[in-house]
Design a protein that fits this description.
The chain is an alpha/beta fold and 259 residues long. It folds into 2 domains: 118 residues, Rossmann fold (3-Layer(aba) Sandwich), CATH 3.40.50; 123 residues, Rossmann fold (3-Layer(aba) Sandwich). 36% of the residues lie in helices and 20% in strands. A 6-stranded mixed β-sheet has the order 3-8-7-4-5-6, sandwiched between helices. It has a 5-stranded parallel β-sheet with strand order 2-1-9-10-11, with helices on both faces. It is elongated and about 60 Å long.
């Protein structure tokens, strides 16, 4: 495995704490890594609705968690109830891992990459009709989950802001001149902030190979004008690492390396 991405310059655009393990794996394969987060996370603008939802957690049949941040914000420090606990539904393996890290079991893991896939999986398992659902999410979350769940027969969906996603306050100074072979995107908002921060750079995506964590992020990148995106087959570090290796092979075949 050593040397699979020898010489590749890789930019990771998510939080440094979340990127540490992946960065070490890339470096072990010979890559050079820089981490510049394209999003920042903040506490909810009003913490009371989230606190109230946590206080009445046993009132819900399901808790729908679509990101690691949502899982952490909702479950951290929340004791597991032995009786009448709600079922937990997660989008992706990394969200499921975060749920378990906080001491709660996972009852359904969606194999898809977004909230629509989670609703589809709940419907497929006939576990949504007549159910009450808690949906803690970011300030940027749209109402797709709530609308589709209600249309599928859910009794109610309580949607509350669990955390805020904001653009980073960073000096992009020389980033427009920096040469990266591969840029790894792990969220639509991070993709959009990257494009916005480099808005004065001609054809932002023309000189990089984008790697996407999943379908939702890929769609955002396509909307921003990115092409030739390599999408991870699984939405976790292992999937991203495989995608980075694939992207580097593609770059070398085309002779587009910066080294």
């Amino acid at each position: 495995m050593t040397g699979l991405v020898e010489g590749a310059r890789v930019l990771l655009t998510r939080q440094k704490d979340d990127s540490r393990d992946l960065a070490l794996q890339i470096e072990a394969l010979g890559g050079v890594v820089e981490c510049i987060p394209m999003i920042e996370f903040q506490e909810p603008s009003d913490p009371r609705p989230l606190a109230q939802m946590r206080d009445r957690v046993t009132d819900f049949d399901w808790i729908a968690l679509t990101s690691r941040r949502a899982a952490r914000a909702f479950l951290h420090g929340l004791p597991l109830t032995e009786t009448s606990r709600p079922c937990i539904a997660a989008v992706g393996a990394s969200t499921a891992t975060e749920i378990e890290r906080n001491g709660w079991p996972v009852d359904l893991v969606s194999g898809g990459g977004g909230v629509g896939d989670l609703v589809d999986d709940l419907i497929a398992h006939r576990r949504i009709e007549g159910k009450t659902i808690a949906y803690p999410c970011s300030n940027l979350a749209r109402d797709e989950f709530s609308r589709r769940a209600m249309a599928a027969g859910a009794k109610s969906v309580a949607m509350v802001e669990a955390y805020r996603v904001v653009a980073p306050m960073i000096d992009m100074g020389n980033l427009g001149e920096a040469e990266f072979d591969i840029v790894v995107f792990t969220s639509p908002s991070g993709s959009q902030n990257f494009a916005q921060l480099l808005a004065n750079t001609a054809d932002v995506f023309s000189k990089i190979q984008p790697v996407s964590i999943g379908p939702t992020t890929t769609t955002a990148l396509l909307d921003l004008g990115a092409r030739g995106i390599v999408e991870a087959q699984s939405q976790n570090d292992a999937g991203l690492l495989d995608a980075i290796v694939e992207a580097w092979e593609h770059i070398k075949k085309q002779g587009r390396t910066t080294t």
